[in-house]
Amino acid sequence: MLLAQPFGPSVIIQITKACKVEQLKQAIGQMINTTPAEMGEFLRRCEPQTHKKRANLSSAGTVPNEVLFIEQGIIRVCLTDSSGVEHTIHFALENQFICDYSAFLRQEKSLYDLETLEETRLVVIPRSAIEWGYEHLAEGDRMGRSIAEFYFIYQDNRIKNQYIRTPKERYDNITDVFPNIHNRAPQHMIASYLGITSVHLSRLKKESYRKT
Amino acid sequence: MLLAQPFGPSVIIQITKACKVEQLKQAIGQMINTTPAEMGEFLRRCEPQTHKKRANLSSAGTVPNEVLFIEQGIIRVCLTDSSGVEHTIHFALENQFICDYSAFLRQEKSLYDLETLEETRLVVIPRSAIEWGYEHLAEGDRMGRSIAEFYFIYQDNRIKNQYIRTPKERYDNITDVFPNIHNRAPQHMIASYLGITSVHLSRLKKESYRKT
DNA sequence: CCGCAGCTTTGCCATAGATCAAATAACGAC
DNA sequence: GTCGTTATTTGATCTATGGCAAAGCTGCGG
C-alpha cells in the first residue's frame, strides 16, 4: 500500500530499503514525528543484519560506534570481572535498542560483551547516523531524550529492586521485564543477572515448589 | 559585569532574577546554547528556595511535579520497603538535578522521599518550566537528552559496580562519586546506600585498619 | 554543663548464599 | 542415535552478612 503513492524512482529505492527495517521505522514513528524524507534518509544510514545463535556482536575493550536495534532475537550483555567470571548484566529483546550506551556516549572502551542467544535479526545504527539524526531530524534530540529516559526508568527500577527485593523475589518477577525469558536464556545466565550463582538459584526453585 | 551591557528595564528584572539562580544558569549554559532571552524566560519560571537541615522536600506517594537543582547543600533520596526499613538510594550534591525522575516522567506516585542533610539552597524547576523549555528553547530537547544521558551513565556505573565489586570495595571508592560524603552524611546512610547494615560497615572498617 | 537521643562499635549467634565436587540431565554435532 | 560438551541438581562445607542486644560515643537543646 505504501507503493500506491505516486513516488519517483529514488523514493522507491528508499522505501525498498526502509521495508527491510520496518520495525525500526515503526519504533521511531512511535517516538517522534518525521517526514517520509527524513525517515528515509535516516534509515538509509542504517544496515540490517542477521546473526546466528551465540554470535559475538561486540567485545569489551573496543569503543562502541553503533547502536543495535533488535527486530527479532535476543542479546545478552555481559561483563567479565577481574577473576574472569562473566556476569550477565542485561537481556535485550525485540524492538529494543542495545549497546554499551555509556561507553558509546563517552566514546570510551566498553566493558561489556554483546552476544546473541538466538539467531537474531537486527539493524545497525552507526554513530554517524545518530549524529546525522541529531543534526537533521526536526525531533532528533527528542528521540534521543525519549530513549535515554526509557532506559533511565528501566535502570531506576532495577536499582530499586536491588534494595527492596530478595533474589528470589526478583526471580519470581523477572518475566515482568523479560517476558518468556525462561525459554530463551539458560538458567545460569538468569541467575547471573539476578546476582546469584546458578547453584543457588536451583536451590531456591526447589524450595519454592516444595512449599506448594 | 553583566549589568555593564545596555539592557532595558525589563531585561534588568530578568537578570536580577537570574542572578539568584546563577549556578543553574551556568549549568544550563554548559549543556546547551541559548539566547539571553530564552535563558531569562526559562529561569523566570524557576524558583529559588532555601531549606534547613533535615527538611523533607518530597514524600513517597505523591506525584513529583518539579525537578530540583542544588546550588548548595546535599539531599538524600530514600526508599522505604514493606517492612518499614529506609534504604538510602542516592545522595544528590551541588550542581545536580534531583527528583524521582522516573515517577516524574511517568507522572506516577513517587516511591522516594527526598530530604536535606544540611541547610540547602536549591532551585525548583516546575514541570511547566520543563515543558516550556522543550517547546520554546531551541535546544530544549537536547538539554533533556544530556541530563537523561548523564544520569543513565551514573546508573550504569552503579549497576556495573554491584556486579563486580564487594560492598567494601564500593565503600572504599564512594568518594569518587560523592566527594567528601564522609563529612556530610552519617555512616548508617552510607552503609544503607552500599546495601549493607551500619553494623556490618563498622566491622569492615575495623578489619581494614587492622590489616594496615 | 547536663542529659537524652541517636550514632557507632562490639559480641554472639543465625542465615543466605558461595564454593567445591560429584552425579544427572539436556543439548548439539556428527 | 551416540558421544562429548555444557547445564542443572544435589550434598557438604565455608564465608559474608544480618539480627539482636548491650555498651560506649557524640552532639545538641535546654
Short synopsis of the structure:
The structure is a homodimer of 212-residue chains. The first copy, chain A, is of the alpha+beta class and 212 residues long.
Task: Explain how this protein is built.
The structure is a homodimer of 212-residue chains. Chain A is of the alpha+beta class and 212 residues long. In chain A, 49% of the residues lie in helices and 20% in strands. Chain A contains ten helices and eight strands. The first copy, chain A, has helices at 9-20, 22-31, 36-44, 101-106, 127-136, 140-164, 167-172, 174-177, 187-194, 198-211; strands spanning 47-51, 56-58, 66-72, 75-80, 86-92, 97-98, 112-116, 120-126. The first copy, chain A, has a four-stranded antiparallel sheet. Chain A has a four-stranded antiparallel sheet with strand order 2-7-4-5. Chain A is elongated and about 60 Å long. Chain A starts with 8 loop residues before the first helix and ends with a helix. The model of chain A is unreliable at 1-18 (pLDDT under 50). The A-B interface holds A 79, 81-82, 87, 89, 101-102, 105-106, 111, 134, 139, 141-142, 144-145, 148-149, 151-153, 155-160, 162-164, 195 and B 79, 81-82, 87, 89, 101-102, 105-106, 111, 134, 139, 141-142, 144-145, 148-149, 151-153, 155-160, 162-164, 195. The structure holds a DNA duplex (30 and 30 nucleotides).
Coarse shape of chain A: elongated
Strand tally of chain A is 8
Task: Estimate the mean pLDDT confidence of chain A.
Answer: 91
Coarse structural class of chain A: alpha+beta
Query: What is the number of helical segments of chain A per DSSP (H or I, 4+ residues)?
Result: 10
The H/E string of chain A reads HHHEEEEEEHEEHHHHHH
Strands side by side in the biggest sheet of chain A? 1-8-3-6
Helix content of chain A: 40-55%
Low-confidence stretches of chain A: 1-18
Seen as an oligomer or otherwise, the chain set is: homodimer
The percentage of residues in β strands of chain A lies in 15-25%
> Radius of gyration of chain A over alpha carbons?
19 Å
Q: Largest interface, per-chain counts? A: A-B, 31 and 31 residues
C-alpha end-to-end distance of chain A = 54 Å
Reported for the largest beta sheet of chain A, the result is: 4 strands, antiparallel
